[in-house]
Amino acid sequence: MIEISFDLGHPAHYLTFRNVLKNSENLGFKPFIFIQEKDVLQKLLMDDGFNYIIRTNKGTTASRISLLPRDIIYLRKLFKKRNIIANFAKCIPVGSLVSKTLNKRSIQLDDTEPASGQIFLFRWAAKEIWTPHCYYRNLGSKHKRFKGLYQLAYLDPSVFKPNRSIPNSYGLLDRGKPILIRIIKYQAAHDWQHRKETDNFDKIIKELDKDYEIVLSIEGNEYPKKWERYIKNYTPSEYHHILAYSKLYIGSGASSAAEAAVLGVPSIYTNYKTTGFILWLEKKYGIINSIRADLLSLENFKEILEKKESEWKKLPKFLFSFYILFNYT
């Protein structure tokens, strides 16, 4: 059987391809998965029963770049032993570079315009580059656009049904729907200029806790002891069920903000960088509001929290009916 390789560096990368991978036998190929070491990504793959190899261990951006030649040599040896005809990745250049050296087809997906370094590398190596229609960069003759968002691949009702019992089992619905706050460490390759930055949500958490249940999703295990009561030990596969039953998402994770929008949950996006899909969802539909974490105030939340939930739920119905569902089921 022919093989197709998948180069994954983030949980959302896997989720984008998950339905393709689950249907690989029906589609006539065997998947060969290699990843950057990330706990949540590994957990999702193991939960779904997929085998994988680790191409790059945890480390800084500098160390990952320095290991690029090693990864290419290592993967070239593996590719030569397999019947791989193509490589798929989402803004990860390693598999594309390997495919280029072996004259194999490489297809890149992207929706993260600020990732200039990765784009520079995969743009040269890839045969095709696919992005959402709202992507604001022009990547040349290889660049193809589709009308939709990658988040539809795994959150469309045909493949995802929110389970109320999951947030309920953690006591998150005791005071109505919770507010989910995502705190990241700015360790992605495109965050290299902001490694030492952190989002300070102390004041906002204290104020919102008076009226709403708060759930924190924190990258890594380092956080103040006073936040322990907001940390719930849910599994990675339960995250989107909790997000779907949230009243509001706050954080600097662009993928999570778009996921919330697709589920009809409004967001306050606090990242210093933006993407085409964030701008599109914000300007066209108003379901995302971009505000730096240090400028947040209760006034920013008032209008959002007072708006009827039925108004926010109109957006996913429109997206599901009008835009391409990137799921290959």
TrEMBL record:
Tell me the InterPro entries matching this sequence: DUF354
**Which PANTHER family does the record cross-reference, listed alphabetically?**
DUF354 DOMAIN-CONTAINING PROTEIN (PTHR39662:SF1), DUF354 DOMAIN-CONTAINING PROTEIN-RELATED (PTHR39662)
- Return the protein name: DUF354 domain-containing protein
